[in-house]
Amino acid sequence: MKNLFLFALLLLLLACQQNTKTNLSSPDNSNTITFEIDQSGILSYAVKSNEQEFIAKSVMGFDLKTQSLKDDFTLLNYEYKTHDSSWKTVWGQKEEVRNHYNELIIHLQQKNSGIFIDVIARAFNDGVAFRYVFSKQGKLQDFIIMDELTEFNFAGDYKAWWNFADYDNYEKVYYNSPVSEIGDSIKYERRPDKEERANMANTPTTIEVNENLVVSIHEADLTDYAGMNLLNTKEGQKLKAHLTPWRNGDLVRASTPFKSPWRTIQISETAGGLVESDMIMNLNPPVAYETTDWIETYKYIGIWWELHIGKSAWAEKTQFGKPINRPHGANTKNAKYHIDFAAKNNIPDVLIEGWDKGWDDMEGSWTGYGIFDWKTPTDDFDIEEVCAYAKSKGVRMMMYHETISDIDHYEPAMDTLFKMCRDLGIKTIKVGYTGDVNYDYDTKTYRQHHHGQYMVRHYKKMVQKAAEYELLIVNHEPIKFTGEQRTYPNLMAREGVRGQEYNAWSKGNSPEHGVVLPFTRILGGPIDFTPGIFKMLLPPKDWSKEKFRVRTTICKQLAYYLTMYSPMPMAADLPENYEGNAAFQFIKDVPTNWSDSKVLNSKIGDYYTVVRQERGTDNWYLGSISDENGRTLNIDLSFLSSDKQYEASIYADSEDAHWEDNPEVFVITKKKVSSKDKLELILAPGGGQAIQFKAL
User: Fold this and answer.
1) pLDDT tier at 418 (50, 70, 90 boundaries)?
2) Catalytically annotated residue among 495, 501, 512, 614
3) Among 528, 453, 538, 457, which residue's Cα sits nearest to residue 497?
4) 501 is catalytic
């Protein structure tokens, strides 16, 4: 009888082990992630917020080239930790960030292979995250991931904001659909001539569960892994991780010890709460540099917009394989004109694109191989004279390197090029990555994707090398931002978006576009959107009958300096369009570094109002934007210091302003206000409002 009892107890213990559930809740108990190992040894998770489960049972694991890590797992043990600290940003939307979470570490072993794997989960008040960790072990040393099995199995067909995944380009239109229609290439316009992937979305993808619950799926600390896309499995509302591959089909090449990026699920009662969340940054390591006093934030102008609207050209004689009939923009005289304007208006940097030789050699596309050396100026541009002239005016040239994604040549040259920039007194390099990665004209092939592990590694090398020369980096055509500005604060901004330039030569961006980006793309990190366009109707192109235009009002462009967050925003229009325009004063005044930021109201795709406190002062700035609809928003000013009076300089759409019919009219008013006051914001269709609150 005793032996029978012991046998029954053993069976019970085994059954319990095979159906293990473990919960982790946030410090305020609002968010919970639950992990389970079923009888087949398959690991899964589920997530709920305020008792509503919005991610149902979702499988985890990997397929390696030599081994499946999908099932047959047994729980060895687990441990709980809690963490609560604060850290100061070098720059950012806040000066101080609280990092408060509960942590669960699950130690697993696959029985048949003997491979060990840990899952580390963290639950914050603003979301949950988990990552996979492979310890150094004899049974797994070098390995290749062929599939990441992580699922996001939504419990309902919720409303989602997404854009088509693309292994090489994030510059996409955003769509709003049920989760089950994400990536639907029949219902939504897809460009099959490019690399847009059917049934697949980029991240961040943001999902409105109900009126009181909004979540966003993304990743954090992407530094040696492939970028994650979301595959619509067409099984209900189930999305699955889909990694951007190496050209031979490998997804991730690794050696133990190794850890994946964090899989992040930001959670908030409002869309604005996602914007205020610090979770993505908190999941990245602390700053990597001993000193950061060489890092600064500021605005810049440049020879850029004139290239896009066709006033001048990047090249001297031929551009993209065709003769050009307009002047080369980056000449010494034009550079000095921009430097003079920047000096007069206290703008530190002048971006100059097209200054180096190689643009004439591109054969009909943005693709090239070995055509740039990134140090030889064009015949009409004297870089030493320009940099010396800028220095005499208290201004700097911002260097532009268009790599054409020619990494084979650019990466070995970075040390020499970055030293050249430092010696010339240049502080910031904008590095572009148009074209196919390592394209070879002889074989007509390219060797890697932009968003795979190869390029993820390259971007890390680049920002680390720039830091050796105390240089700042802005990237165009980049990998996604995943909060790494915390670790590498000389990484100032990334484009990675369908930005302002699309208005110059395509059907342009809709009035709604700008009211979607803060709740999607910008959740990952700062954006280089190039705001500040004042002339909305653009010159005609000799190759098109279409009338090109910017689909906003001037005041919406001003508000972008608050809503399109960047520590290094551009005043993107031509200097002559700023001269004599009273709205330019706001661009001159608006700061680039903040002590605090608060979202006053928000609805994805409709409207967004944010206020930010200038770092080191009691001054605040407000930006409010709308979609194609005009609207009135009421706000209170309780964010202002209660013991101070303020002068509010209000830049508002005129009564008859409209993005389509009358976009360039505005009124400026000034009034005294305090924290007890309320304001009515009246936004035109496609419009906005920008306010400076200056402490008296």
Assistant:
1) very high
2) 501
3) 528
4) yes
What φ, ψ does residue 466 adopt, rounded to 5°? -60, -40
Query: Using CA atoms, how far apart are residues 226 and 258, in angstroms rounded to an integer?
Result: 13
3-state secondary structure 202-267: CCCEEEEEECCEEEEEEEECCCCCCCEEEEECCCCCEEEEEECCCCCCCCEEEECCEECCEEEEEE
Q: Could you give the CA distance from residue 433 to residue 477 in angstroms, rounded to a whole number?
A: 5
Q: Which residues 6+ apart lie within 8 Å of 408 measured at CB?
A: 369, 438
Pick from 18-27, 453-462, 605-614: least confident: 18-27
Q: Is 234 left (phi over 0), alpha (psi -120 to 50) or beta?
A: left
Distance (Å, whole) CA 277 – CA 608: 16
User: 540: which DSSP letter?
Assistant: P
What Rg, from alpha-carbon coordinates, does the chain have? 26
CA distances from 94 to 230, 489, 565, 593, 596 (A): 30, 14, 12, 8, 4
Sheet bearing 607-614, strands edge to edge = 594-603, 607-614, 620-626, 688-695, 646-653, 666-673
Distance CA 633, CA 689 (A): 11
Report the C-alpha gap between 388 and 171 in whole angstroms: 36
pLDDT at residue 71 in the model: 98
Across the chain, what does the average pLDDT equal?
A: 94
Pairing relation of β-strands 349-352 and 300-303? parallel
Tokens of 127: 């979301």
Q: Which of 313-327, 329-343, 464-478 has the lowest mean pLDDT?
A: 313-327
Closest CA to 175 of 199, 153, 151: 199
Closest among 5, 60, 4 to 33, alpha carbons compared: 60
> What is the mean pLDDT of the segment spanning 347-362?
94
Tokens, residue 202:
């980029």
Nearest-10 Cα torsion for 163, 167, 170, 171:
-90
The count of residues in the chain is 696
Query: pLDDT exceeding 90 applies to what percent of the chain?
Result: 89
In this predicted model, what pLDDT tens digit does every residue of 592-605 receive, in sequence order?
Answer: 999 999 999 999 99
- Residue 608 CA to residue 276 CA, distance in Å, equals 13
How confident is the model at residue 486, as a pLDDT? 98
Rounded to an integer, what distance in angstroms lies between the CA atom of residue 670 and that of residue 649?
5
pLDDT of 302 above 50:
yes
The pLDDT tens digits of the residues spanning 255-286 come to 999 999 999 999 999 999 999 999 999 999 99
Q: What is the pLDDT of residue 646?
A: 98
Around 433, how many Cα atoms within 13 Å sit in the side-chain half-sphere? Answer: 30
Amino acid letter for position 558? L
